[in-house]
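Ticket #4471: structure export looks truncated?
Reporter: QA, pipeline team
Priority: medium

Steps to reproduce: submit the single chain below to the structure queue and open the exported record.
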Amino acid sequence: MNIENNKRVARQLVEGLGVRDGTQAFDQLHEDAVWTVMADPATFPVSGSMSKASFADHIRAFLGELPAGIQITVTGLTAEGHRVAVEAKSVAALPNGNMLNQVYHFLFEFRDSQVIAAREYIDTAHAVARFSI
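Actual output as written to the record:
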């Protein structure tokens, strides 16, 4: 276990979600990784757990709908043991003309220097409002 390496991997993963097709981010995920969006499925359609492959498909589709891409910036990192907490923000122009200015909290658990479990917390009300026409 190397805390500084885990923090580096977590930063690469989060910031890599906004780069081209997300491959840089997916390389940081363990083959058995599970990504969970911590939201109520009744109010936020993108919620629940996804395998690495399903998460990659979701992100590629999302990035494909953003005309100018998305800029994701890590604003804080805290690590202990095999867990890293990441705070981040993003900015993106949406196809409907709205701007997405999202904030995130991620909790990553590591195995073999890769993320094996990810929990994503976002402002779901903001996302729903921004994506609405």
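Status: closed, not a bug. The export was complete when the record was re-opened. Leaving a note from the reviewer for reference: The mean pLDDT is 93.
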